[in-house]
Amino acid sequence: MTMKQLYITFAFVVLAATSAFAQFNAVINVTDLSTGLPVPNATVELGGNFLSTDPAGQVVFMGLADGTYDYFVTATCYNSGPGSVTIAGADAIVSISIEPAT
Question: Across the chain, how many H-helices and E-strands are there?
Fold first, then answer.
């Protein structure tokens, strides 16, 4: 095998390995349905992981492979809400508005 063939083979293997393990982020923004304002401290469950929204109503789930993920949002004084996010070769950003409980 020539040096050029060896280099091309090595480059292909590295590229294939990198692509196979590409991981992305899911950014979920939670807002109040009636006001449009962010909902801080809401709990978002995705794939068995639980994160709380920041003051801007946002959570970021990192290291996700391509696929569709269901999530569920709960917050004090709000009705719970489901949603889904699809990762397809890039980070994904979704928004969900939850309704205040009466």
Answer: 1, 7
Cα→Cα distances 5→9, 18, 97, Å: 6, 20, 55
Given its phi and psi angles, is residue 37 left (phi above 0), alpha (psi -120 to 50 degrees) or beta? Answer: beta
Residues in the chain: 102
Q: What is the largest CA-CA distance in the chain?
A: 74
What is the percent of the chain where pLDDT is above 70? Answer: 81
CA distances in angstroms from 79 to 14, 38, 55, 64, listed in the order given: 47, 15, 19, 27
Q: What is the mean pLDDT of residues 23-44?
A: 98
CA 70 to mean position of chain CA atoms: 10
